[in-house]
Amino acid sequence: MKKIKEFWESLDDMTTVSKRELFLEVVCCALAGFVLGILFCPKKRTTIGSFNGNGRELPDEEAIEETE
Fold first, then answer.
1. Are 44 and 52 within 8 A, CB to CB?
2. Torsion, Cα of 29, 32, 33, 39 (10° steps)
3. CA distances (Å), origin 32, targets 2, 11, 38
4. Predicted TM-score of the model (pTM)
5. 3 state SS of 1
6. H or E element that contains 7
7. How far apart are alpha carbons 12 and 6 in whole angstroms?
8. For residues 24 and 31, what is the distance between their CA atoms, to the nearest angstrom?
9. pLDDT tens digit string along 7-59?
10. CA terminus-to-terminus distance, the chain
11. pLDDT at position 18, please?
């Protein structure tokens, strides 16, 4: 616990960050957010159309062959 307190107190120091480092930190945080969002989002299934028989209708002969 003592090491954690020392580390926490060392965070008060002022430091200079270059624009390149700041940009890379922002990019890393954004990409991490995308990955975590993909991993923890609820799974969704999208159905286009309702499978209610729209589309090609089979002639009577083919329909009989497929049911057998």
1. no
2. -170
3. 31, 23, 10
4. 0.49
5. coil
6. helix 2-10
7. 11
8. 10
9. 888 888 788 889 999 999 999 999 999 999 989 988 777 777 666 665 666 55
10. 74
11. 93
Number of H helices, E strands in the chain: 3, 0
Here the tokens at position 52 are 């209610």
pLDDT score of 10: 82
pLDDT at residue 27, as a whole number: 97
Of residues 48 and 61, more confidently modeled? 48
Confidence band of 63 (pLDDT split at 50, 70, 90): low
Phi, psi of 51 (to 5 degrees): 55, 45
Return the structure tokens found at 49.
């159309």
Write out the H or E segment, with its range, that includes residue 34. helix 19-40
Q: In Å, how far from its chain's centre is CA 23?
A: 22
